[in-house]
Structures are given as C-alpha cells and as structure tokens.
Specification:
With about 250 residues, the chain is an alpha/beta fold. It has helices at about 5-15, 50-60, 70-80, 145-150, 165-170, 180-190, 220-235, 235-250, and strands at about 25-30, 40, 45, 65-70, 85-90, 100-105, 110-115, 135-140, 155-160, 175-180, 200-215.
Amino acid sequence: MNISVQKAFLALLIYLSNTCFAETFSVALFQGANPPYTIIKNGQHSGFFVDLFSKLSQLTNYDFVFRDYPAARALEEFDLGNVDIEPGVNEAWRQQRRIEGKFSIAYGYSTEVMVFKKKNAINIKSVKDLHGKVVGTVRGYSYPKFEQAFNNKKITKINNRSEELLLKQLQADRLEYIFIGERTIKYYMQQNPQYRDFVIGDIVSKVEVKIRVHPSKAYILDKINAALKILVARGEIEKMYAKYELEKQQ
C-alpha cells in the first residue's frame, strides 16, 4: 500500500472513530438490469454495483439502499433529489442533465460496443459509417460522439428500456445494430445460447467511470474517494469484475 493510500485509510479510520451513527443514501439501479453490474433475480439484487457499495459501506460507515428504476426514470429521480447516487457514469454522459451532479474519482472504465448479426456486419471507423443506419440504445444512455448525428437524424436512434430488450429486438431482426456495454453483452452471450452468434463489433465509447452524487450530498465524496483509492490500490475492484467473469464460465 503506497503512502497516499495509507493516508486515505488513516483518515477514514479517524473519521469513523468520531462517527456515532451511519447515514443512509439511495443508489439508483436500472430496472431490467445491466449485468454484470446489476443482476436482479427473484427480487434480489446482486452484481458488481452491489459488491462495490457493500465494500464502500464497510470503509465509510455509510449505509446504501438500492432503488430500481428504468434508466430514464432514474435520471429524473436524481434531478428531483429523490436519488442520491448513480454509479458507473462519466461526466460527459450527464452534461445535458438539469442537475449534472458531483463526481468521484475514477475507479474503472466502461467500454461500449456495437453489436449485430453476421449478415449485417459493418466496420465503424467514423460516425459517418453509420449514417443512414438505425441503432438501438437504452433510453437515458448517452453517446457524445454520436449525439450530433442522432440529433440531425443522420443516424436513427431507437430507445428501449433495457439492454435485455435491445438484445431481444436484435434477435428478432427488429434492429440491425445496438450499442451496449462490452461486459454486459459478453455476460448475456455466455448465459444465453441464442445470443452467441451475435458479433461484437467496433468500440463506440471507452471512458472512465465514476460515482455521481447529487449536489446536496456532495459532502460524502471525500470519504467515498478515500475508500475508492483503497479498493483500487488493493486490487479489489478488479477482483469484483473478475468474479463475474468467472461466473460466466461456470
């Protein structure tokens, strides 16, 4: 553990020793799930975000409760102040929101890819390569590189409520192309044989991911950042990701 991480850990210990009770904060999880980040089975939550906030709770003495919303609704609830935290996002995705929020340090990366069937294979070297095409995305997700083409109708964007529904539309040939997280599509392909013939195409976005906090709760960021530094330094973030990579292979 390097010196900066040691200092962060000591600062946390000192703070916690003077804290008599745990504050509770709400965390938005998207309905329909986006495994391996959020997995919902029989009403129970699991996945990377659940593991992450369990670790953060241990290190910060904060409690976190999960709230399920469709992606677009989750963004509205954040704007209204009914949700305190949105995990796994980047500032560029939220610049157009009414409440942009405050962001933690980065703890990892999100890679978004285009997925299609073999018969619709295409290489994307620039945005223009998708002009005239129809692309499915999850409502509320942002792709800054493509937004101008979406707005100008150079590329037709079809929104849906979840990644799972996008994959069903792709399977049924209701869509030819979709944008989806690389870890998410690999998870679905491993778990669902009907998706294994899909082609994972070019990367459409790769950015750092952070924790977005409502400005009214910005005071929690110091402790969250200190905790994230510890988790990154210990290699625990990568272990959490790897856990679901291993599960996919079983």
